[in-house]
């Protein structure tokens, strides 16, 4: 079966299994994350008190940890939930939002990776470099380095992703104009997406939540990560086509709409994997 | 006057009195709750620090307590605000989101009910069963049991709602495909709504906020609860008609739009109360 | 150059410089604030833990402090970030949401003003009166006093704004049906806007975030505040024209859309500054 057929089937699995995706996430984009999980066919739950996160993750199919609005109260909850998920073989997905922007974020991301075995880590190039211990210029939480020539970026993403994947045993996804998804010594490149995605807050967080849904419904996390990133990129393209010049908020509505209308046929027709850049 | 006429008048009262509805609620759906309160004609305020909740509730017309993202910091605020509201005869409405999913939620819901006299409790069948001390399978926060035959469900909702209402002295609303609203030995059934409501996060929370508005403008909390649930169901139907196949995010926009355009005539024409199922 | 030309240029500067606007704000309207900052051309970051706010504000171009859901945990973060911003000459904008509604809010607003030098304070008449130590009837967080005759209101806003500006060395913006922006002994009046802005939560917060963007891209904070308030008012008018009777949630989508499509020409054509009321 082709990889795109598998992605289509993974979507069907999400819709059939309605995986419960437990999020410990930020308060900025949490509503969009919940709605995009529902739109894809999953079931979101957001709970972050240390008194209940272990119970909650125990009934979940996946755990998403997002450090967008990191605070002392929830760090311990993240660790408790992550460890419990590890014990129960529930996949844990990390979105290291803004790591590198402050010493605290860098320290906490490091701590999370030490204490929890992640199945997937998704970030932009600057965040993933930071996780890998490579210095990078981060400006806020949305930054991407765009200093290098495109082919170099592609090559760098492959090396960075695969090296970090080997080191951590996790799927590493680096999103940007071209997304890379690496596991061990394999890397997919995805060229879907639209630049308006960067004008709506939380498209990265939402992408991570989609990955959570796919990984909650299928044990192949490499496939699940690819499926999540393809879904987001394709939805961005459709949203742009539907809303053209209406503005960024109409785009955002159409983005979640498109996820709710996504099917295997659309994935098959629109996916741009491994294409020549 | 017919009950539907009374609901129509209750809406007019909300619009004339602009009740201030104080919420101590979760950070996932809080924005939609605030916007739907404004759309109906109320005025929302969200404040959760224990240093100010008593002052805030003292100027409010109703208090909504929603445990969606329960945490140790706000539990005490909920109790302080609830007790103050009781003292001032301000109605308190409980949305026991996800109770039963974790031991912590069950414990806190129990504690809230012991310490605060609620005017209304709204939940799905699994949440209300849990409040009543009946075991139920809850999966996350959005679950509904759908194992039984429909007539049995109706009958069970009536018995459960009326028994719990007698015990707690509160209006008990059990929402689902058919909603029931019970007070003492009386139960209304509402068959309005649309299945897409379950594909948008927070439609339960928003429904509870609407109940808060109605109860803040009119002392008849049985009527207020019925009015809130009818409003949500009707808005869901209109939203579906307006957005058809656009997707779940367009539906969500149309849902709040419909509340802002709701009037007595629409309520009269569309309400399905006590109809044969 | 006319003031409107300057506002148009200020918008261009936001788009060219992409100022990073650090927010310590409430969890009700935070997503809309982030999206409207992106729509205008800025870059939002929301971080509130005391362990990282100083690092975050150090890489930002402006700091917005909004006390909408004030709590003990973030008050200290606000003070740390504010003091750091002052040291680095980064403008700090205060939105004293609901000050006067509770003793706690009044106390904290006072403390913030004592500890931090604000470049801009934006509120409604009741909030600004409260900051100035004048008693005012506040009901919740959205209240505006509408007891006085319109000309008196205008005159009062000028006196209040200029007096407070002299006292605090800050630009004082009082938004309402007519907005006033005062600095030292000068006041602009803006008559743009639409009444539906008051039916969407967070339009005040969003306006403050827009001011944050402009002040992060241009050292003239009086101009930046005027630009933010004009942008919001004009966007409200366009949103109403586009959505007419659709409802308040469509209006909200169109509002952020309009900010993303705003340009110098629209500002020039639509601004109503200093006009006779």
TrEMBL record, chains A, B, C:
GO terms for molecular function: hydroxyethylthiazole kinase activity. It is an enzyme of class 2 (transferase). Its cofactor is Mg(2+). Its EC number is 2.7.1.50. It comes from the Bacteria. ATP binds at residues 122, 175. It catalyses: 5-(2-hydroxyethyl)-4-methylthiazole + ATP = 4-methyl-5-(2-phosphooxyethyl)-thiazole + ADP + H(+). Pathway: Cofactor biosynthesis; thiamine diphosphate biosynthesis; 4-methyl-5-(2-phosphoethyl)-thiazole from 5-(2-hydroxyethyl)-4-methylthiazole: step 1/1. Keywords: ATP-binding, Kinase, Magnesium, Metal-binding, Nucleotide-binding, Thiamine biosynthesis, Transferase. InterPro entries: Hyethyz_kinase. It holds the Pfam family HK. Substrate binds at residues 46, 202. The keyword Kinase applies. The keyword Transferase applies. HAMAP family: Thz_kinase. NCBIfam families: PRK09355.1, thiM. This is Hydroxyethylthiazole kinase. It comes from Clostridium mobile. The gene is thiM.
């Amino acid at each position: 079966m082709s990889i795109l057929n598998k992605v289509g089937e993974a979507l069907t699995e999400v819709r059939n299994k309605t995986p419960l995706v437990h999020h410990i996430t930020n308060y900025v984009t949490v509503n969009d994350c919940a709605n995009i999980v529902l739109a894809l066919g999953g079931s979101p739950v957001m709970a972050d008190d240390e008194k209940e996160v272990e119970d909650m993750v125990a009934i979940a199919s996946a755990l998403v940890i997002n450090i967008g609005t990191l605070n002392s109260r929830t760090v311990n909850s993240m660790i408790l939930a992550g460890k419990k998920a590890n014990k129960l073989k529930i996949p844990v997905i990390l979105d290291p939002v803004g790591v590198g922007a402050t010493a605290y974020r860098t320290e906490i991301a490091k701590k999370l990776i030490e204490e929890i075995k992640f199945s997937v880590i998704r970030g932009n190039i600057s965040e993933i470099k930071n996780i890998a211990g490579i210095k990078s210029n981060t400006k806020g939480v949305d930054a991407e380095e765009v200093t290098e020539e495109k082919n170099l970026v592609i090559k760098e993403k492959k090396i960075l992703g695969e090296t970090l994947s080997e080191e951590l045993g996790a799927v590493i996804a680096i999103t940007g104009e071209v997304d890379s998804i690496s596991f061990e010594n394999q890397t997919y490149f995805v060229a879907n997406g639209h630049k308006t995605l960067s004008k709506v807050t939380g498209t990265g967080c939402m992408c991570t939540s989609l990955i959570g849904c796919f990984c909650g419904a299928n044990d192949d996390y490499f496939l699940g990560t690819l499926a999540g990133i393809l879904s987001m990129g394709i939805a961005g393209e459709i949203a742009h086509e539907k809303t053209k010049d209406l503005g960024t908020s109409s785009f955002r509505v159409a983005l979640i709409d498109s996820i709710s209308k996504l099917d295997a046929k659309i994935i098959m027709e629109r996916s741009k994997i491994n294409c020549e850049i």
